[in-house]
Design a protein that fits this description.
There is one protein chain. It is built from 4 helices and no strands. By secondary structure, it is mostly helical. The chain has a domain of 43 residues.
Length: 93
């Protein structure tokens, strides 16, 4: 039996991954992700962690050369804090 070609993976995900790769982005399949206490294949301990902290830290250090580690840590804390109790406008702001 041939799989149905009209599915989200075929129509949305694969074209998006191809476009991102064409633009020079590294892509990864989340279905193949592994988790570990010291950070799994994508740097997460479990599925509840939505922020890839090692990648966020590396990006902030790259974008803000010369900033002290305390400033980078403060930025990570602010960027990754929960906004679930806020209204949508306040959370976006």
């Amino acid at each position: 039996m041939t799989p149905n070609p009209y599915n989200e993976d075929h129509l949305v995900e694969q074209p998006a991954l191809a476009l991102l790769a064409e633009l020079g982005w590294a892509t990864a399949c989340g279905l193949e992700e592994t988790f570990a206490p010291d950070g799994g294949s994508l740097g997460r301990r479990d599925r509840r962690e939505v922020v890839l902290l090692p990648r966020l830290r590396a990006a902030l250090e790259h974008l803000n050369p010369g900033q002290p580690p305390e400033a980078i840590s403060a930025a990570i804390e602010e960027l990754s804090r929960s906004r679930t109790a806020m209204g949508l406008v306040a959370a976006n702001r």
